[in-house]
Design goal:
The complex is a heterodimer. Helices cover about 35% and strands about 15% of the residues of chain A. Chain A is α/β, with parallel strands linked by helices. In chain A, strands 1-6-5-2-4 form a 5-stranded parallel beta sheet. In chain A, strands 3-7 form a two-stranded antiparallel sheet. Chain A has a single domain, classed as Rhodanese-like domain (Oxidized Rhodanese, domain 1). By secondary structure, chain B is α/β, with parallel strands linked by helices. The chains are: A alpha/beta, B alpha/beta. Chains A and B meet through helix 3 and helix 6 of A and helix 2, helix 3 and helix 4 of B.
Chain lengths: ~160, ~170
């Protein structure tokens, strides 16, 4: 009996915490650490792909925040939307709706330290759930500035 | 065995150092002086004009943050406490939200009872500071408007508070 009461208390406490968050319609936060290591691509490796004249170019999708993308982004990457929010996740689903499931896709965000990124795992899981088999995730330990721009990798600055 | 133990300790220290926030030395202007903080004017969430230049004479902690940034939300209650504690001694916290939308910022502003001005940022403002390409990001700006510290990533708040106390224009 006591156990059930505790369960109910925990449920309402959890619901309260969720509802009191200041963000817009947020999807549940999924830690980036849940993405399998084999699915990660290092910045140096992606930079090499972009530099290579012969390597096939993947579709690169930015699944973070527009204000950050507008300041700097990877050349030819497309802004989709913040996948940590329901609306952004839907935009991602719409963007890939007509693609074949074996399309090579690289997703990235870099809004904040990897373990705190609200977008990247949500985007990865959505693409995985849709059946995409060639999805890679750009690993940025700290943020896009430190792990990409400041290392001199190709970038489009400004709006 | 002993060697393995040392390696573990060294690896541990390296890992701990790698997770520390990055406090970089501010860049110098061509004449060797500290770089002046770019001025900007915005309307804050209370509808008042917010101009960075108007805080000359105060020590400014300029904090770029967003409601989607967990470490940012962890910091701002401390910033509000510092504004209370050190405001009379010349500290001014200024928040710039890099959220794409205003509504969640207003909710967070109310929820955290922020007692310092907060304005919406944008790409242009970010670019004027060399790019706000990851959060949290804070600048410490001296009473003459020069950048004396840049803090990227999760902050060591104790360390930052000590630095602030050492730079306050007046005794707290």
């Amino acid at each position: 009996m006591k156990h059930n009461a505790m369960k109910v208390f925990h449920f309402f406490a959890f619901a309260f915490i969720l509802l009191s968050q200041p963000g817009t319609a947020l999807a549940q936060h999924i830690p980036a650490a849940s993405i399998p290591a084999a699915e990660l691509v290092q910045p140096a490796d992606l930079a090499a792909i972009l530099k290579s004249a012969s390597a096939p170019k993947p579709l690169i999708l930015h699944v973070g925040f527009r204000t950050l993308y507008a300041q700097a982004h990877i050349p030819d990457s497309e802004y989709v939307g913040a996948a940590g929010e329901d609306a952004g996740l839907q935009l991602l689903r719409n963007r890939v709706a007509k693609l074949t499931k074996d399309t090579a896709i690289i997703i990235y965000c870099g809004c904040c330290p990897w373990s705190h990124c609200p977008n990247i795992a949500a985007a990865y899981n959505a693409l995985h759930a849709l059946g995409f088999t060639q999805v890679k995730v750009l690993y940025m330990a700290d943020n896009f500035g430190d792990n990409w721009v400041n290392l001199g990798y190709p970038v489009v600055m400004g709006r | 065995m002993k060697m393995a133990g040392v390696r573990v300790i060294v690896a541990g220290v390296c890992l701990a150092m790698a997770t520390l926030p990055i406090a970089t030395t501010p860049s110098l202007a061509s004449d060797g002086t500290l770089q002046a903080a770019p001025d900007f004017t915005r309307t804050d969430l209370e509808g008042r004009s917010l101009s960075l230049r108007s805080y000359r004479g105060k020590l400014v902690l300029l904090n770029f943050w967003a409601t989607w940034c967990g470490p940012c939300l962890a910091e701002i209650p401390r910033f509000a406490a510092w504004q209370n504690t050190y405001g009379a001694a010349g500290l001014q916290i200024v928040g710039v939200s890099m959220d794409d939308e205003l509504a969640p910022v207003k909710r967070a502003y109310d929820k955290y009872h922020l007692n310092y001005p907060v304005a919406m940022g944008d790409a242009q403002l970010g670019e004027s500071f060399g790019g706000v390409l990851g959060l949290p990001l804070s600048y410490l700006i001296d009473p003459d408007g020069r950048i004396v510290g840049r803090y990227q990533g999760e902050l060591d708040l104790k360390q930052l508070e000590s630095k602030i106390k050492s730079l306050l224009p007046r005794r707290p």
